[in-house]
Predict the structure.
Amino acid sequence: GRHGIGRRNENGERLLAFHDHKWALCTNTAFPHASRHTNTFTGWIKDRGSRKTIPWFSQIDYILCRSRSTSLLVDARSYAGAKLQSDHKIVKATFDLSK
């Protein structure tokens, strides 16, 4: 979608090829949200200059939806703060099934 973040690696290229082949939509890239609601993974890297550990954010978790179902899609975003033993965020998509 138009609201993805970061650069795409080889696995991202594979997902995009699958996405195009199956007529799918990555739901959490379809809606504009603040960056804290679009990134799904937080890692840590060492800054070479200052030697400080700084956070590194990326968008690597997705919910895929068939293109024919996109009219039912209302919103999708990530949520932090879940009590999980993971460095990933929960990704949630909301659909309106009354349509």
The CA atoms of residues 49 and 55 lie 15 Å apart.
